Amino acid sequence: MATLNNVSPAARQELDKIAKLFQVSDTQVVAITKALGEAFHVGLQKSGQAVVMSPSYVTHLADGTEKGSFLALDIQWRDFGVSKITLDGKKTSKSVTKRFPISKDMMKSSATEFFGYMAKSVGAFVQQNSLQNEGLSLGFCFPFAAQMNSLGSATLLGWSKGFNIKNAVGQDVVKLLQGELDKAGVPVKCTALINDTVASMLSESYLTTPCVMSTIFGVGTNGAYGEDIADIKKLQLSPAAKGSQMLMNTEWGAFSQSVLNRNHYDEQLDQSTSNPGGFFYQKMVAWLNLGELIRIVLVSLVERSPSLLFNGVATDKLQTFQGFDTFNMCKIEEAKDISSVKKLVAELFEYSPDQVTDQDAEIVLWACKLVGDRAAKLSACPIAAVLIHLGFASLDKIQGGQTKLHIAADGEMFFAYPGFESLLRKSLGAIVGEKVEKQAKFIIVQDAGAIGAALAAYAAKGQ
User: Fold this and answer.
1) How confident is the model at residue 77 (pLDDT cuts 50, 70, 90)?
2) Within its chain, how far is the Cα of 365 from the centroid?
3) Which residue has the higher pLDDT, 118 or 447?
4) CA angle, corner 236, sides to 233 and 240, nearest 5?
5) For 157, what's the count of Cα atoms within 13 Å in the CB-facing half-sphere?
6) Burial of 378 (0-12, 13-18, 19+ CB in 10 A)
7) 301/309 Cα distance (integer angstroms)
8) Across the strands, what pairs with 441?
């Protein structure tokens, strides 16, 4: 926790009350892990659960021998990429990519506009690279909750991460895209759709080594792993369920049980999102939400009577929804001294330098660490739950071995938040023991969506 050397005893007492609302004990992370494990089990048995446990219909991990050229469409937060990926069968690939922006208006447009924009962008890429006559199939990396019906069919369950496209929920995402591709006269067939966590697992297994699971802690959060098909009870009558194993997309970000112990700041954040009433776990740990949660805490401190921050003055910037980006949380925590924090706070919230005191700077740093540390500690829970589910760990902490457990890891929290992995590991050790924590090896992957989508299109050839 940040030091509060310049904060008065009375103010510190009030801050301590708030800090207790964000504290995460070892007992709590164990309880959350246990509840997540139970949610995984139920999701494997029944459809329609919050933690969806969506089968990907990808039945083999990549091993680096895959060959061929494919198109890939990969949605990220503020843009999407269209790529031609050539897999050489030797654990390497070549790519040509063009990225297209997603405006805030487009994030809240209609299905026709959104999928039409992507289809026309695919068409432009195909034409620019003279690919019209190559007959390339397209793999689609789609990072939103969807119920897979087959590798080439997925029903959208809901939007998150600030997206709210109209007339799309309940529709087949592949059909929406293919319909717009056909309408635009683009000679491309979308043959496979996967989630970004499945893409990470496929990509890393192709490029380096097989992974026991993948995890993303970025704009959103999610995880994937390989499940015995015999244990996916809800799939037993599906003709598409072939093989012995299948990669599962957990959608653990939607976990919303009361064991999370949310506070009134979390509740206020939830009401400001595009999908209130759900995805509570994601909203406590995801990059998209942490900056806004900090801003909500800071505004409450300004508005208290007596005020604890900025002498009771809130700038327009401080009062603006999403006016504090999570990248700024990282900047503040990485500042070398309190003078640097003061300068940053004045710049980021548009105060004049003389309006920011040492106390103000310490409190802003304290709020950043309060929210960020909680997110890092909670991030261990679903990872532990998957490792326990797979038999690599247990809550009694007696398991452990020498073999490394490779985990493909992606997202801004891993590569931008200072100390994230260290805090996550400490929490992981508290749940499953130090032996398993040391076995876990996080392999940081970035931009895995395109290669993963291409590998999914490769897998579709054999189905």
Assistant:
1) confident
2) 24
3) 118
4) 125
5) 20
6) buried
7) 6
8) 406
The reported pLDDT for the residue numbered 237 is 58
Q: What is the pTM of this model?
A: 0.93
Cα atoms in the Cβ-side hemisphere of radius 13 Å centred on 56: 41
Among the residue ranges 104-118, 317-331, 449-463, the one predicted with the least confidence is 449-463
Q: How many helices and strands in the chain, by DSSP H and E? A: 17, 13
The crossing angle, in degrees rounded to 10, of helices 287-303 and 326-334 is: 70
Cα distance between residue 120 and residue 138, in whole Å: 14
| End-to-end Cα separation, the chain, in angstroms | 53
Which residues, other chains included, contact 136 with Cβ-Cβ below 8 Å and sequence gap of 6+?
69, 70, 71, 84, 188
Q: What is the rounded radius of gyration, in angstroms, for the C-alpha atoms of the chain?
A: 23
Please check the confidence at residue 409 and state whether its pLDDT lies above 60: yes
Question: Contact, 205 vs 221, CB < 8 A?
Answer: no
Alpha-carbon distance of 363 to 280, in angstroms, equals 26
Cis ω for the linkage preceding 306 (within 30 of 0): yes
3-state DSSP of 43-100: HHHCCCCCCCCEECCCCCCCCCCCEEEEEEEEECCCEEEEEEEEEECCCCEEEEEEEE
Cα separation, 213 vs 386, in Å, equals 8
**What tokens does 384 get?**
């532990």
Tokens 């499940």 appear where?
227
Contacts of 16 (CB under 8 A, 6+ apart): none
> Of 230, 277, 220, which Cα lies nearest the Cα of 250?
220
Beta bridge partners of 246: 227
Kindly give, in sequence order, each residue whose CB lies less than 8 Å from that of residue 398, ignoring residues fewer than 6 positions away.
Answer: 433
- Dihedral over Cα of 322, 325, 326, 330: its sign: negative
Render pLDDT for 83-130 as a digit per residue (tens, 0 to 9): 999 999 999 999 999 999 999 999 999 999 999 999 999 999 999 999
Task: Kindly give, in sequence order, each residue whose CB lies less than 8 Å from that of residue 329, ignoring residues fewer than 6 positions away.
Answer: 290, 291, 294, 368, 371, 372, 417
39-74: per-residue pLDDT in tens? 999 999 998 899 999 999 999 899 999 999 999 999
Distances (CA, A) of 203 to 79, 138, 213: 20, 16, 12
Q: Which residues pair with 79 in a beta bridge?
A: 101
CA distance 205 to 247: 12
